[in-house]
Amino acid sequence: MTPVSPPVAAYLEAAARLDAPAMLAPFAEGARVYDEGEWVTGREAIAAWIARATLANEARPEVLEVWHEEGEERVRARVVGSFRGSPVTLTHRFTVTDGRIASLRIG
What we know:
This is Nuclear transport factor 2 family protein. By secondary structure, the protein is an alpha+beta fold.
């Protein structure tokens, strides 16, 4: 499997443990996350998104595939949790800049 960068690995490992502070740690100050049709911007908004989207639904990713395309680290994961439709397979598209996650698009 193609390796992921340290910040992406840290995020994925923390998400699997439902560790919100560790999930937030790799994001840059002005990072953006796109999930369920909306963008959230900045660490405070991302922290709220983590609580709402991940912790409240106990959503844990199980990595299936990793590849690099168009300047992104792409991770296909089976996400299992307490949400309707679980499990679901989603692609996470990470952009990493200066060793921090600058953006994450989930879909």
